[in-house]
Amino acid sequence: MKRNLLLTIEYDGAGFSGWQRQPDRRTVQGELERTLGLLCGQAVGLNGASRTDAGVHALGQRANFAGDFAIPTERIPVAANGLLRGGKRGAGLDLGWGAGGDVRVVRAEDMPPDFHARFDAVAKKYIYKIRNASEPNLFCRHYAYHVARPLDLDAMREAAGLIIGTHDFQCFQAAGGEKKETTVRTIFDLRVEGPGCFQSGERTCAQRQASEDCVERQAPTCVQNNGSTPCSGDIEIEVKGDGFLYNMVRIITGTLVEVGLGKMHPQALPAIIESGRRQKAGHTAPPQGLYLADVYYSMI
Q: What would the CATH number be for the domain defined by 3-111?
């Protein structure tokens, strides 16, 4: 009997040329289709909820595939991850840094025959991580956007509040993406979270951790003068909407960063959105700080 399965997937995008399969390039979709094809004994075509770009990560990507295979649904994540852990081998040495180290099937669920992971999605949530420290951290370069100058979180939050709602977001769309019927989208929530204790070396980290602001926020880390703290994303931008245009989250992030740096006033956001002009908005933040956090469906 033909079944339709929905997978929840997480991956480190640093080693991939994005989600979508491409000839002669390593992609998340390509790795998973190859692995699931071996597991199910037939060709597998995955429908991804989001076509993340090269370098973008996922905590909760969703994808479905249909087929007639015997393996129980609950066994698919275990079996698939066992195959993915094979790693890349060379000269008789298991290097251990292949697909098993950067992509994992978290969960598998049976769905109705007509379910589609992309077209049935009603909302998505993304997280963008910014490392706001005076010095870069070598080990963060693939997982957060380093901004050396201190950011004004209050100004960024004010600007974020003006983005929430239903608008024509053409100003936040990069050229080169798939042509859309409309650029109107609804942003349900847009939050800027951070420890609020980066002072560009004016106080020691221990002093900042003891500050009232840090205690209230229960910040996981506090920015060190040498920028050597764990790579946790000192500032996180969380955005949830019914859909997103090409590079929309990264352009929103770049715009909020420019507000935080004082290059743009928060109250300029309504006029920027109204203009519909990409040139009015801020820069496109780099891909490495972006994480697809969740995809929502009305029936789940």
A: 3.30.70.580
